[in-house]
Write a structure and sequence with these properties.
elongated, 0% strand, disordered N terminus, mainly alpha
Length: 180
């Protein structure tokens, strides 16, 4: 058994301060200075509002058989807003982290976002290609929406954890300063 500071020890060593924060100080500075942060802050709740309206229209169609055109339009609008938030989100990741997608801080959220995109895109292909009838299209939309909700929860939990960690860091640094 070897002890000491071999070359592999550094790669496997965990920092004494715990896991890496969501943002380094430089990434936080870039995040706060980027106009894309505001764009994401506007598009995320807008997308959720469009989702809620569309979900209501899809469920209305499935329960009553009425409003098929409105349901289709709402799903297409939801998908276009999703594409917009994904494009602007990848620009945001490039500005903040230096990579377009799959940065370590948001890797699993981005992976699941690809599933969300795939399901929404499959809906568009099936709709405009005439590959599915109305009811299976609505169930495909519901699958896309379920994936969207899971993905939204992923992001909310990640950002909440980052906020709690930042608050804890602020509290700890305040305690250290107060004790000096």
């Amino acid at each position: 058994m070897q002890t000491g500071s071999g070359a592999g020890d550094e790669a496997n060593a965990r920092p004494a301060t715990g896991p890496r924060p969501l943002y380094t100080p430089e990434e936080r500075r870039r995040r706060d200075a980027s106009p894309w942060t505001l764009v994401q802050g506007i598009l995320a709740p807008l997308q959720f509002l469009v989702f809620l309206v569309s979900l209501a229209l899809v469920l209305r169609y499935l329960s009553t058989g009425e409003g098929l055109f409105a349901a289709h339009v709402s799903i297409v609008v939801k998908t276009l807003v999703l594409y917009l938030i994904m494009v602007t989100g990848s620009i945001w990741e490039k500005v903040v982290f230096g990579h377009w997608l799959f940065v370590p801080a948001f890797f699993w959220e981005d992976v699941f976002s690809m599933l969300v995109l795939a399901l929404h895109t499959a809906y568009l292909i099936a709709l405009f290609g005439g590959y599915l009838t109305a009811e299976p299209l609505m169930y495909l939309a519901l699958a896309a929406y379920a994936a969207y909700v899971i993905n939204a929860i992923q992001f909310i939990l990640k950002l909440r954890a980052a906020r709690l960690a930042a608050d804890q860091t602020m509290t700890n640094s305040g305690l250290v300063e107060a004790s000096q």
